[in-house]
Amino acid sequence: MSISGAEAEASHELLVIRPSKWTLVVIVQLRSGTMRFNELRRNMGGVPQKSLSQTLRELERDGYITRTAYATIPPRVEYDLTELGRELLALADDWHSFAQRNRRAVEQARRLFDAVDERPAY
């Protein structure tokens, strides 16, 4: 069964909508359960408020997390993983394992690459 042009484009679209460098960090942070915005931000250390807000909106839009707002004073908002988010978490764990297993090989490849004075133009 071949993939139509529209299906291929849609699959490609899914791959390119994850532009935030904080996406997997948020997913991993939510592993332990529901968290509030400031709790996430504090645990992530160094994430700008705007970047975290944008990342959370993208993750909610794509169905990876849920956002629950409570009508309290002050307002309380909590974030949690969906089933789809838990599946993404499994991928993040696999990526982390891959990175740990191959760290030395990547470091060696970088040293070799950086040691070459003349490289062909790409």
Features:
122 residues; Arc Repressor Mutant, subunit A; three-stranded antiparallel sheet; 5 helices; extended; WH_DNA-bd_sf; transcription regulation; Transcriptional regulator, HxlR family; WH-like_DNA-bd_sf; HTH_HxlR
Tell me what you see in this structure.
Keywords: DNA-binding, Transcription, Transcription regulation. This is Transcriptional regulator, HxlR family. With about 120 residues, the chain is mainly alpha-helical. The protein has one domain: Winged helix-like DNA-binding domain superfamily/Winged helix DNA-binding domain (Arc Repressor Mutant, subunit A). The protein has five helices and three strands, in the order ααβααββα. It has a three-stranded antiparallel beta sheet. A hairpin with a 5-residue loop joins strand 2 and strand 3 (about 75-80). The two termini are about 35 Å apart.
